[in-house]
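Fold these two proteins, one after the other.
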Amino acid sequence: MPKPVLRRVMTATVAAVGTLALGLTDATAHAAPAQATPTLDYVALGDSYSAGSGVLPVDPANLLCLRSTANYPHVIADTTGARLTDVTCGAAQTADFTRAQYPGVAPQLDALGTGTDLVTLTIGGNDNSTFINAITACGTAGVLSGGKGSPCKDRHGTSFDDEIEANTYPALKEALLGVRARAPHARVAALGYPWITPATADPSCFLKLPLAAGDVPYLRAIQAHLNDAVRRAAEETGATYVDFSDVSDGHDACEAPGTRWIEPLLFAHSLVPVHPNALGERRMAEHTMDVLGLD
C-alpha cells in the first residue's frame, strides 16, 4: 500500500478509536450508579434454642433471657450483614409472643413491623413443658431402671404426643399467623429442633443421657412429632420450615465434643444441658441460610 494511502487509513483508524473511546467515556459518566444490596431488617424470635442459652458470651442486655451473642441469629446477621433485632428468650413459649415473659421483657411480636424483611424462630418445645417434662421423667425412670426396658414409655404412653397435637400444634399456627399479621412482607423461617437423642440406645451414652434403652427411641419419636407439628404449622401459614432431621443426625447429645451439636444432660460442656452448644448454633445458622438462599 502506498505511504499516503497508509497514512490516511491510520489517521482514520485513530480517529475512529478516539471517537469510540469518547463515546464510552461519556456513556460511563452518565450511567446509573450500581445499586447496593439493601440491608435486611431481621428479627429473631423464639426460645432457648434460638437464644443459644448456655453458649458464651451472654448478652448483657437481658440476663433473664440468657441470650447468647453467638446464637444462630447473630451468626446469620454477621454473615449476611443483616440488621438484627434479637428478642429470643430462654424458656419462651408460643404464648410469650403476645405477653410479657418477664417484667420488662416485651411480647416478642412487638419487635416486628411492616418493614421487617426476615423472621426466624424456634418455638414450641416449652409449650406444655414438653422438653423438660419428657427429659426429666425419662431420665429419672432410666436411672431407677438401671437403663433397662422402657419405663418412661410404659408410664407416659402417648401423653406427650397427645399434648403436642392438641395444644402445641394449634398454638404454633396461631403464633405464626401473629408473625404474619405483624410483619406482612417478611420471609418467615420456622426452624425445627436438632436431634437430642440417637435413633437407638448407645450403652456408652448412659452416663451422659441416663435413658433406658427402650426410652431412647421413645424420646426421639416425641421430638419427631414436635418437629412435624412445626412443619405443618409453617406450611399452613406460608412460612418456610427448616428441617434438621437429616443434617443433625449423628450430632446428638451422645456424640463426642466437637461432633455433637447438643450438650448432654450430665457432664455437659455448657451452662445449660440438653441445648445446642456453639457448634450447634453455628450449624443451625448455616443450614438455615442454605435453605433460605442467604449468604
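Now the second one:
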Amino acid sequence: MRSTTRILCGLATVAALAVAPTAYAAENPYERGPAPTESSIEASRGSFAVSETSVSRVSVTGFGGGTIYYPTSTAQGTFGAVAISPGYTATQSSIAWIGPRLASQGFVVFTIDTTTIYDQPGSRGDQLLAALDYLTQRSTVRSRIDTSRLAVAGHSMGGGGSLEAAQDRPSLQAAVPLAPWNTQKSWSSLRVPTFVIGGEADAVAPVASHAIPFYTSIPASSEKAYMELGNASHFFPNTANTTMAKYTISWLKRFVDNDTRYEQFLCPAPDDRAISDYRDTCPHA
C-alpha cells in the first residue's frame, strides 16, 4: 500500500533543486556534505571521517553513559546531534552500527546505555533528553554541536522512549522510533517531525498495535512518515540495515539540517523492494 497524500511534492523538490548553489547555501546554513545521491545514502559510510569517545556511566547522571560518534573535522562548522536508546534488556552494543554510519553523514551521534536494562519507555525518554543535555553542555564534543538542531531515536522501548522525549521536548527537530513499543497509543500532542519505522513480521511490537497506531495518532498537521520493512522482525535495527539507514539519514538531514536536497528520497514515497508499506504527510517543503 502506498499513501496518496503527496500533492505538490515533486514541484517543491524541483524548485528547491533549481536554486543557484550560492543562494541555496545562504538559505540553508546548516547544509553539510556534498549533494546526496541514492548511492551516497546507501553507503556504509558517508563523506565525513569519524572519531568516537566513550562516556562512562559513573561520569553522568540521568542515563547510563554511552559512545559518542562525531565528524572528525570541524571545517564545515557545527553539526546537528541525535541521541539513540536501545531496547528492553539491551545495551548500546545492539545499536552500535548506527553510530558511525550516521556520524559519517554529518551528525554527532550518542548511542546510550540506560540506567538499567529494564527501564520502561517513559524512563528511556527522560534518559534520551538527559543524554542530549550532557552532549550539549558537558561533553568533550559540545563545541561541535548546534544546540538548536537536536533529535532522538531508539529501538523497541527505546523507540517508545523517543516518542516520549519528542512529546516532552517539542523543540527537538526530529524523532525516529524504530520498531517502537509503548503502552501509550495516542500521540496527538506530538509536533516534532517523526519518522516511524516498523517491521512487517514484528511479533514483539506488532505494527498493527504499535507502530501504525502511533503514526496514525500523530496529527496530520505535523510532519510524519511511516515506513514498514517487508518480512522484518522486531530486531531489524540490531544489524546493519541499508533501507532503514538511508531513509533515517534522509529524515534527519531534512528536518535536523533543514536540507531540502534530501527531500527527493522521501517524497514522493520511496518504492524500494524492501518496503511493504509507506505513509506520509508529504509535501514537506
